[in-house]
């Protein structure tokens, strides 16, 4: 049952704002090809806004290679604290909110787990196909489904987990009013989600090459544009200025900005380092003005782009090399970057202060298939930074890793270290 009172949904948004926050190698594949047969795209008319560029493509720059850490780092400890396997098919998506973890899979169930021990709290049953993407914000959960629609849920996790569907995007009324001309519905898999907290805007990216923008409180699609020449694989939003970043199997990363006081978006910059499909994005911001964008590609490289302090322009700062096959997912927290790959491993990278220079601190090895999705949360932040890292693989397992990074001059003494689960 859906709520039709906009006031109820607005109260959920306000509450959320207060409470926040990969096997034997085959030829290189795109993000989609690894999971599905090639879809047939339907043509969509590009919006005029999508054709405008305020800046030329990023200039070519010499590649700067960040070194591999071939021996165990004296500044990091890690181990797997939980490993779960359910016969529910491939896990496509993970989201973390407060003490709760959500996983979406081929099974049409959204599983709900308590972190860090991964005790199951319940599930949300969706009857509309596999769950490709999940995004959690406060008491709100957004999910994408096999019918190419997005659903919003209100959650209560105090004692017993409860969920209630708020709406489906696009709403059914849109089809009733415009049954033959509806342009709000994606025409292929909705592969990624991003949410701009300040304006309450939900961004959806699809294999139909388009990005759609939804104003959540009144459930309206306020913009739709062709973003790329191939599948849109990932989308992120800079919460500081509202800039939107998209990546695609066409090998490009694009930066979009919303026109002030309007709903339309304009292309401000195209980043392209090599022709390999781009599967994943992550954004890392640190005060006062430092901002780094990471893109993971099918050639196994992770490109790093640094934002100019006085403009919206991003410059190529080099690349991280270590994965043998395609990079499928990325997470950035503080100065750390976690990357999951078709080579079945997860790598932990640390960015050096004031530069794009990165060191690979560790390789988390435990999956027997491509690492399809990652999520991470920061647990402690003092002399020892503690992280919980969640990974899901096409081997149908879900794992939780404890990662401890020692800052400053303190190093790890393995003999004196005790782990507590």
From TrEMBL:
Gene3D superfamilies per UniProt: YVTN repeat-like/Quinoprotein amine dehydrogenase
Biased amino acid composition, Polar residues: 40-51, 61-70
Q: Does the keyword Metal-binding apply?
A: no
Q: Which Pfam families match?
A: WD40
Keywords from the named record: Repeat, WD repeat
Residues of the region (Disordered) are 32-70
Q: What are the WD repeat spans here? A: 183-224, 225-256, 320-359
Designated name of the protein: Uncharacterized protein
């Amino acid at each position: 049952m859906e709520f039709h009172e906009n006031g109820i949904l607005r109260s959920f948004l306000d509450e959320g704002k207060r409470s926040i926050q990969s096997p034997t190698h085959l030829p290189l594949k795109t993000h989609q090809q690894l999971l599905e047969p090639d879809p047939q795209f339907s043509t969509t008319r590009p919006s005029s806004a999508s054709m405008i560029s305020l800046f030329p493509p990023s200039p070519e720059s010499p590649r700067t290679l960040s070194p591999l850490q071939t021996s165990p780092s004296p500044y990091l400890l890690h181990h797997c604290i939980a490993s779960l396997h359910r016969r529910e098919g491939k896990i496509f998506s993970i989201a973390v909110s407060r003490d709760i973890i959500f996983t979406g899979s081929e099974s049409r169930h959204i599983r709900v787990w308590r972190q860090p021990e991964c005790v199951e709290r319940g599930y949300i049953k969706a009857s509309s196909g596999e769950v490709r993407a999940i995004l959690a914000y406060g008491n709100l959960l957004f999910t994408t489904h096999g019918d190419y629609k997005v659903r919003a849920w209100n959650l209560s996790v105090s004692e017993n987990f409860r969920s209630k569907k708020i709406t489906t995007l696009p709403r059914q009324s849109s089809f009733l009013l415009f049954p033959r001309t509806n342009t709000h519905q994606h025409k292929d898999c909705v592969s990624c989600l991003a949410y701009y907290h300040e304006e309450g805007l939900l961004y959806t990216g699809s294999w139909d090459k388009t990005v759609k923008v939804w104003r959540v409180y009144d459930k309206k699609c306020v913009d739709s544009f062709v973003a790329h020449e191939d599948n849109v694989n990932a989308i992120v939003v800079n919460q500081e200025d509202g800039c939107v970043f998209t990546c695609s199997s066409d090998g490009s990363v694009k930066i979009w900005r919303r026109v002030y006081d309007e709903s339309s978006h304009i292309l401000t910059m195209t980043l392209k380092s090599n022709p390999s499909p781009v599967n994943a994005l992550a954004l890392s911001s640190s005060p006062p003005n430092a901002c780094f964008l990471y893109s993971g590609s099918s050639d196994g490289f992770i490109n790093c782009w640094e934002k100019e302090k006085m403009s919206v322009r991003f410059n190529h700062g080099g690349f991280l090399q270590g994965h043998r096959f395609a990079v499928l997912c990325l997470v950035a927290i503080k100065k750390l970057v976690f990357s999951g790959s078709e080579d079945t491993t997860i790598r932990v990278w640390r960015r050096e202060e004031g530069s794009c220079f990165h060191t690979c601190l560790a390789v988390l090895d435990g999956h027997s298939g491509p690492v399809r999705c990652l999520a991470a949360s920061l647990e402690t932040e003092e002399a020892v930074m503690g992280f919980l890292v969640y990974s899901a693989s096409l081997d149908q397992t879900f794992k939780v890793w404890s990662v401890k990074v020692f800052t400053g001059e303190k190093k790890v003494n393995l003999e004196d270290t005790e782990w507590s689960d």
